[in-house]
Fold these 4 entries.
Entry 1:
Amino acid sequence: MIPVILTVVIIVVCFFLLIMYYDCNRFVTVEYEIESPKITKACSFVLLSDLHNKSFGEGNQKLIREIERLAPDGILVAGDMLTAYERKRKHQVAINLMQQIGEKYPVYYGMGNHEQRIGMEPGEFDNLYEIYMESLHRAGIEPLVNEKVSLPAANINICGLQIDRRYYQKFSKHPMPENYLSEMVGKASSGQFQILIAHNPEYFEEYAAWGADLTVSGHMHGGLMRLPCLGGVISPRLTLFPHYDGGKFEKDGPVMILSRGLGTHTLPIRIFNPGELVVIYLRPAHHKQ
């Protein structure tokens, strides 16, 4: 009896290891369409999040080819394109990708907690933040660190939010004061379609209350492993079955698109949860495809 049980356990473990290897080394393209009367010109954006120095093919050519096929009007980056504590040589993966897409598309880069960490602790990370920011600058990318940029042709305003690190604490969610976002980035642009790049999705209600018509986020990695009906299993905050794990969420009109990310860190686990390349089509409300 014991050999039979052991054989079954080995088969199950091998099955999950194969799925994990497969899902850690592929990505799927996921599309969303959003309409708003505020939008005056149809446009599309590719959303990148949580690459964590992952390369799909040499020089990330698989990822770049798919972006080129989609031919977006711009790229939204929701942070964590690198991993703070990996060896320095691996950061060249993120740098190379940013330089290649920066040559071809407008890139609107919002910071994740890993970019934030290397910026706050330059001594620990050998001034990697300065090196990375300079590489983005050479690629024509100016990160939106609590800053906004306007796209008047489409009547769109894009804001990149960097929240305090206390909002990334483990185990419990730190409450966000009502006026916190306004103090960080000013008031939302009520007359324009407001896009907020906010790495941590757990504060979607606060983002919506601030005035974000569309929030784009990452950070959750899809919950590492996904189960039927239950969704993502664990969050970076080490809570089980997080509500915001990936996909599209709505709150009385405002929408959040939460990418399941592209890479991994610390625990290289993706089970029934491949990486995601997200494309968002924004349309005037009267537009019918």
Entry 2:
Amino acid sequence: MLSDYRFYIACGALLILLALFFAARSSRRVTNSRLRRKIRRGEFLHYSQFEKNWITEGADKPTGYKYADFSGCYVIMIFDKPVRGKRFVNYENIYIGQSVNVCQRVHNHFNGKGKGDVYADIKYGKEVYVRIVPVKPKRLNDMETALIEAFAATESYNKTRGGAKITKK
């Protein structure tokens, strides 16, 4: 009789664990979907527009992305054809990263000093767009990891799940 109770308790515990697992999985899927929508609704720039505005002539001094650097994450999407109507879906490849100097980092990718796959896509005439997301330095790892998961970027150009380790010297 006592072994029957243990069996039922074990089955109940297993059901509770399964319910928690599926609830967490569903919650993560909803969170990923919301993050993807938020990013896609933001302002993407074609790489040529970003580069055109790298340095611009201001009234007193040069301006542009080179001089407006800040910390953040970036989402680089690659398409076969130009995107029409801000529909940043069905991309061919994607690369997500982070930097405390995000504009400089994106510029490096576009000029062959970053992810070689991104530069090769530009070189071979693909349509490359970037979305920069300002993020406080202490939140960079969390945001990059969330973006990589939300866009399943490890199935494309990202080789890791993000969240760089900072080593102190």
Entry 3:
Amino acid sequence: MKYKFDVHIHSVASGHAYSSITENARFAHEKGLDFIAITDHAPKMPGGACKLHFFNMCVLPEYIEGIRVLRGVELNILDDDGSIDLTDGYIDRLQVVIASLHTPCIKPRGSTEALINAVKNPRIQIIGHPGDPRYPFDVKAVVNAARENNTLLEINNTSFNPMNTRHGGETVVFELLKECKRQNHPVILGSDAHFHTNIGNFSYLEPILKEAEMPDELIMNTMPEKFLKFLGL
């Protein structure tokens, strides 16, 4: 199996996802993944999990259904300053921190400044689905900032689902992959699963990864030990 983990996964706590943490873990174990993360939507997303959901994730066992489950969040980037919707006291209790632009939380517009400021936040490890065409950005500048700040940029499988509202970002993602390759900066793949059978599914990404000639050594999902070290685990 080429890809060893998936850390962009939602549970019913996100409000518009449909599987429990146990269902997610069981499927990921059956699929043969090394580990997963549960990264539910933070509070500013309508229907998202409340702050106490993230504070109390420490009650989860490290292994569920035979697979390691990391505690995480998908934060919302709220403005051009890169503001987010959880404070350090909550983030301190988590292991995987993604931050993304979502239309219910920030209106579509040019997002270079917002993304660069989010990248500079040392609490944010991953920028989720930056290829959303509703939020155009300077690819070279954002990749450069990500490399300088050791932040990963996500290539999001759900964005390429024809039913998704982020469709149309193929050109941006291709440019992002080429620039990451040029700067020798790894990317991370995320399923953005909202139902457990999509966990570890990166099938929509395969054609564009192949077209960009993205080497395995620049795709973090092929290197589970390196990623855990990146997280400080």
Entry 4:
Amino acid sequence: MIARKNSLSRAVRQSRSDRIFLACNALFLLLILVVVIYPVWYAFIASFSDPLAVSRGELTLLPIGFDLSAYKKVFRYQRVMTGYRNTIVYTLTGTLVNTLMVIITAYPLSRKDLYGRKLLTKLFVFTMYFSGGLIPTYLLVRNIGLYNSMWALILPSCISMYNVIIMRSYFTNSLPYEIQEAAMIDGCANIEMLVKIVLPLSMPVIAVILLYHAVGYWNTYFSALIYLSDADKYPLQMVLRDILISSQISEFMDSSESSESVIQQALLANSLKYALIVVSSVPVIVIYPLLQKYFEKGIMLGAVKG
């Protein structure tokens, strides 16, 4: 009886220490969350707050006033709308092409009956550590006629070996090979097996890969900086870079207005920058919660077991 009481007391002490650890862990994660979320929240409230309060740095946690002038100017600016259109085209096309390339690369590497698959996997992994470099890649893109075209942003990086490893691990560890063997016995061809059996069972990892590629293309600017020379083909992030970094915010201003209006526009400059950041971030913020359940499941099943 005494021994039982001692064991119960030790369990109580252990549970208390666990609770303390979990509380400290929760506080630490909460601190990280605040550090990550606060800049996004500040940009959001600054985009529609009183421009004078934004310029004075009076914002902390809550907006001051309500002014949508920054958004009106952003959506009237033709370069932003053109960048939005280009980014949507690049994101949709690039995501579909890249995901297709990842699937048709990962599926054969996951098949046990593929001769030399280990050697092929090692050769693919080799490209993760060694590449031709920026200058040879630029010369190649220019020589084959892709320079200043949409495909210059898509084809040079159409396969990510990191994503191939995630998908191959999912195919290998999460899909019983007996299903594929049964399909082969029933006379199912490889393409038919991939389309009708493997892909419908792999929606979690496909959603993860789609999200990876979509976010990558939505945020891309370096490839456009290297391979595009026509401003009408710039993605949204390149337009934002020109405005925010190259100090082209004056393009939003109307110099024909009165001096008082010019002063108001100058006060609006900071709000314009925050409005541009919000406009460029909203699509990704909206899409991510819709794919979150697939994202978590796909990562756990496709990467941890691999």
